Amino acid sequence: MLSGQTPARVWNTRRTEKQRRLASVPVQGKVLPTADLTAMLEN
């Protein structure tokens, strides 16, 4: 079985994933450009 050591629980996986997705989109401000909207939402 395990050698008595369990990995630390990560409690902010949803927040981290959201930050990663937001950082992957090159947007200035809160408004998405209409021309790129579909491509951004598919990611």
From TrEMBL:
Residues 1-25 are annotated as: Disordered. This is Uncharacterized protein. It comes from Salmonella enterica subsp. arizonae. The lineage of its organism: Bacteria, Pseudomonadati, Pseudomonadota, Gammaproteobacteria, Enterobacterales.
